[in-house]
Specification:
The structure holds 2 protein chains of 2 kinds. Chain A is built from 13 helices and 17 strands. By secondary structure, chain A is an alpha/beta fold. In chain A, the strands form 4 sheets. Chain A has a 7-stranded mixed sheet with strand order 10-9-11-12-13-16-17, with helices on one face. A 6-stranded mixed sheet of chain A has the order 1-3-2-6-7-8, with helices on both faces. In chain A, helix 2 runs parallel beside helix 12, helix 3 runs parallel beside helix 4 and helix 6 packs across helix 7. In chain B, a hairpin with a 2-residue loop joins strand 2 and strand 3. The chains are: A alpha/beta, B mainly alpha. At the A-B interface, strand 10, helix 8 and helix 9 of A face helix 1, helix 4, strand 1, helix 9 and helix 10 of B.
Chain lengths: ~425, ~300
């Protein structure tokens, strides 16, 4: 079910942000735009805003340094949240708008995998390079997961790359953590029935079984679910020793954890993917804020590198600009923008915007490597990052002055 | 499934059903009296949940469970009464400004304003409380419970059930035994004839909105206490399910709405209990279709003269 009533309204809410720094624009410099599509309203603002800030920071630094290759960079920012929740149809509309703007040479986004699945057919047709900081569903890129249908228009001309690694790595990483680190043997798996949530839960289930674990039960709970107690009551008699949630906070992650206490399962460890690692308990609407005291003993994975090569340089610059700590996907968004800016620097300067767009697409997907805040990043033949790193977090209820926060525990390179 | 699990699920279903029943009553009362599907009613429920949450967190400064039963009563009774009165007034205002001017307009017009009111309420709440889910202090701890047939029944679900049944009976008595109730029934039967007999139509319809919205506010309070989090678009699905409950029971019929609410609760929990939670929405509407095929007027039908 879509909350599509407001679609028309938010389509109108297109903001063009001039990211010009104080420096004079380069002499004779043309202006090019980088498109952005993220969920920027509703319950997902805690996700979208720090991600957008990462992009803005990279663009501001480039403009302050006198632009790139003689170009001044602007952003064209689109919001894909409708009625407070990311919406694939709105995403498709937004990328149609971006693709139709000749000055848009490439774009960063989206945040959510089901939005990505709806957008790639449009951008593939238009030959617009898209770099997602956060998408993890393998179906967007990998032919084995049906990606050739997604990039049907030009299956050979890859136009979608991402710096986050995929759920066929994130799901199994969660399973290994639950099995090896938490010692769980009987998992209850609940997913939110969406592209991302169900996909990552499927991968968790496969790996947990192959490690020798049992699946107590596997259930789906659509995001409109408010009553998880009946699902938990049904599963309780099967004695699970861990609960894995495939989904994000806005599709029920925090509410489910809270109601586990109610159903007498509050002492079970709770593992989830990146969608629940979303800020401290002091942030209204974050996983820890919703779950309250029940958030203790929860573990989350992030499909990206945590120990970036020079963490202080990035977070200091971010803090100086926005006066807060970066979010989980601020650095990946910054990295995505760096990839596009690096390509812009290396391609031949031209006033033919269509040629410039294609040159950037070809450069990024042409086997080049990029020196970014995330380290050296390259993209394989499907556009997936060659960096297969998962970071692990757990809740610490004494952090953030007692409000509770996610703390980093370890990161692991899952190689190739 | 063993006996404790079945008993537990029975109480889960009764609690969820009670919330749907409270919302469905408002739908059915408004339909009964002015034949309007009040699409904003789900959002009235949502606003009620936020009003109750605000009172508990800001003026009362609560963050979690309270242990002393006397203190719980001293918190919840005023919160309940204020929520009911505030939401009742909201209901009257909605009727006064969005529906009354269109009372003689074609039936589609108030339906559209109802959708408009729904958006206005959602946007007001979003502007005040933000777009994220909000945590509700669960004043009555779930550790306060007793065991029945091996199932853990929290006092909160007993309280919700008792309150709902009390309100349903009180409503029946009110409609059946009081002069305002008689005015409602006569207005529902024939508005013009009622007016000729000296019934103040505007006052009667306003009273209907007051009661329906106060019940929705009650549902909002107990929803927050029981499920622990609320969000500004909560009313959309809850309203849709409660509307289904009202149609299922026979729209316009208050007993039917209460019955329909509990039935929807049982379908939803039943789906989850059997492992089909993925299909719960489809199942609810499938039940609606099946019932309407065999009983087009709903389970109890529209008892003309009883509806209000």
């Amino acid at each position: 079910m879509k909350f599509s009533k407001l679609a028309g309204l938010s389509a109108a809410a297109v903001i063009v942000v001039s990211a010009c720094g104080g420096g004079a624009s380069p002499s004779g410099g043309a202006t090019v735009k980088i498109g952005v599509d993220l969920p920027l309203s509703g319950g997902e603002l805690p996700n979208g805003e720090p991600t957008l800030n990462g992009i803005k920071l990279a663009v501001k630094q480039a403009n302050d340094a006198g632009g790139v290759n003689g170009y001044t960079i602007e952003l064209s920012v689109q919001d894909d949240a409708v009625n407070g929740v990311h919406d694939p149809q709105q995403g498709a509309k937004n990328v149609t708008t971006l693709a139709a703007d000749p000055e848009v040479i490439a774009m960063v986004g989206p945040y959510n995998s089901n939005v990505g699945l709806a957008e790639v057919p449009v951008t593939n047709e238009a030959g617009l390079l898209q770099c997602s900081p956060a998408n993890t569903n393998p179906g967007i890129t990998k032919p084995d997961y049906g990606a050739l249908d997604v990039r049907k228009a030009h299956p050979d001309k890859i136009n979608y790359v991402r710096v986050a690694t995929t759920d066929d790595i994130q799901g199994p990483a969660g399973a290994q953590y639950a099995y090896n680190d938490l010692g769980a043997r009987n998992a209850l798996i609940i997913d939110d029935t969406e592209t991302f949530g169900k996909g990552v839960a499927d991968e968790f289930e496969k790996e947990f079984k192959s490690l020798g674990g049992k699946i107590a039960d596997r259930v789906g709970a659509p995001k409109s679910t408010t009553d998880y107690t009946s699902i938990l009551t049904a599963a309780k008699s099967k004695n699970p020793d861990v609960v894995y949630f495939g989904g994000v906070t806005t599709t029920g992650g925090g509410t489910l954890r809270k109601q586990m206490e109610q159903a007498g399962m509050g002492d079970l460890p709770y593992v989830g993917p990146d969608g629940i690692v979303d800020g401290s308990g002091a942030t209204d609407g974050s996983f820890i804020n919703i779950a309250g005291a029940a958030a203790a003993n929860a573990y989350g994975t992030i499909a990206a590198i945590h120990d970036i090569p020079d963490p202080t340089a990035f977070s200091d610059a971010y803090k100086a600009e926005y006066n807060k700590d970066p979010g989980a996907y601020s650095a990946p968004a910054y990295g995505c923008t760096q990839v596009i800016l690096d390509a812009l620097k290396n391609v031949t300067k031209t006033s033919d915007m269509a040629a410039l767009r294609e040159a950037i697409r070809a450069y990024v997907t042409g086997g080049n490597t990029f020196d970014t805040a995330l380290g050296t990043v390259g993209f394989d033949e499907n556009g997936d990052t060659t960096q297969h790193i998962i970071s692990f977090y757990k809740t610490d209820m004494t952090a953030a002055d007692g409000a509770g926060d996610w703390v980093f525990t370890k990161q692991q390179d899952f190689g190739n | 499934m063993d006996i404790p699990t079945i008993t537990q699920q029975l109480f889960n279903a009764l609690t969820l059903g009670a919330i749907y029943a409270l919302i469905a009553l408002g739908y059915t009362m408004v339909y009964g009296i002015i034949e309007l599907i009040n699409f904003a009613h789900g959002d009235v429920f949502m606003v009620g949940a936020f009003v109750a949450m605000w009172m508990m967190t800001i003026p009362l400064g609560l963050t979690g469970a309270v242990n002393d039963p006397v203190q719980i009563a001293l918190i919840l009774i005023p919160v309940l009464l204020v929520t009911m009165v505030v939401m009742g007034i909201v209901g009257i205002l909605i009727e006064r400004f969005a529906y009354r001017p269109l009372r003689s307009a074609p039936r589609l017009a108030p339906l559209i304003t109802a959708v408009g009111v729904s958006f206005i309420l959602q946007n007001i709440i979003q502007a005040i409380f933000g777009p994220s889910p909000r945590n509700v202090p669960q004043v009555i701890s779930f550790t306060n419970r007793f065991d029945v047939l091996g199932a853990h029944i929290s006092y909160l679900s007993v309280l919700i059930l008792g309150l709902t049944i009390f309100l349903i009976i009180a409503l029946q008595l009110f409609i059946g035994r009081t002069s305002l109730g008689r005015a409602m029934r006569s207005t529902a039967q024939d508005r013009e004839a009622a007016a000729l007999m000296g019934v103040d139509i505007n006052r009667t319809i306003a009273a209907t909105f007051f009661i329906g919205s106060a019940l929705a506010g009650t549902a909002g309070l107990v929803h927050g206490l029981y499920y622990g989090s609320i969000i500004f678009n909560l009313g959309f699905f809850a309203g849709l399910k409660a509307f289904t409950a009202a149609v299922l029971g026979g729209i316009g019929n208050t007993t039917g709405a209460a019955l329909g609410g509990f039935l929807i609760g049982f379908v939803e929990v039943g789906a989850a209990a059997l492992g089909y939670s993925r299909w719960s929405e489809a199942l609810i509407f499938a039940v609606l279709v099946i019932v309407l095929v065999f009983r087009p007027a709903g389970l109890l039908g529209q008892q003309v003269g009883e509806r209000a």
